[in-house]
Design goal:
By secondary structure, the protein is α+β, with helices and mostly antiparallel strands. The chain has one domain: Alpha-Beta Complex (tt1808, chain A). The protein has four helices and 13 strands.
Length: about 190
């Protein structure tokens, strides 16, 4: 049985979430299985990693002549109405041009999350299950250690589950193919 199906669904809907103002202090309000979750405001290192990753995606898409995808940071993503899940991934690749208050899961080609030392295992697993259940083809997890160094684990969706393609660590230049277009970089560029 899927972890999502075993978890009780809360009362809040995607519509409730979208109608609720985000906190003014920079923290993020997300909806996970019908329950509101507030994450602290991202650190400077966290934002730096997300911004740099967005630039890598943008350059990769531009080199490939892909104007059908757009790289965006920190956008509201309607992951699942059924599972009442709305998240704010750190970086997404959107099919088409960005517009509106949020993006539907069917328009997400890739989602990336920057995991900071404070993210719980439960939060990470819940998000991973939600993205997979939504059918988002690619997921990248950026793991920040306490010193700010970032490693990247790239996954591709196969039979409704994410399968790891590779983990890249700072100091090694790699090409990750678990993306709409291959991305070549050294994860060291994601650390300030």
């Amino acid at each position: 049985m899927s972890a999502a199906l075993a978890h009780p669904i809360g009362q809040h809907t995607i519509e409730d979430w979208l109608a609720t103002d985000q906190p003014e202090d920079g923290s993020r309000l997300e909806l996970i299985w019908g329950y509101f979750h507030v994450s602290p405001a991202p650190s400077v290192q966290h934002q730096f990693a997300g911004d740099e990753l967005r630039l890598l995606f943008k350059e990769s898409l531009r080199r490939a002549g892909r104007d059908d995808l757009t790289a965006v940071t920190a956008v509201a993503a309607e992951v699942s109405s059924l599972l009442r899940t709305g998240l704010i991934p750190d970086v997404v690749l959107i099919e088409g041009r960005p517009f509106g208050q949020s993006v539907k899961a069917k328009n997400l080609a890739l989602v990336a999350e920057v995991w900071s030392p404070g993210n719980t295992l439960g939060e990470r697993e819940s998000k991973l299950v939600a993205y997979a259940n939504a059918g988002i083809p690619y997921f990248w997890a950026l793991q920040q250690d306490r010193a700010g160094h970032v490693s990247v684990t790239a996954y591709r969706l196969e039979n409704g589950r994410y399968v790891e393609e590779m983990t890249a660590r700072p100091g090694e230049t790699v090409t990750i193919k678990a993306a709409p277009e291959p991305v070549t970089f050294d994860p060291a560029v994601l650390s300030p």
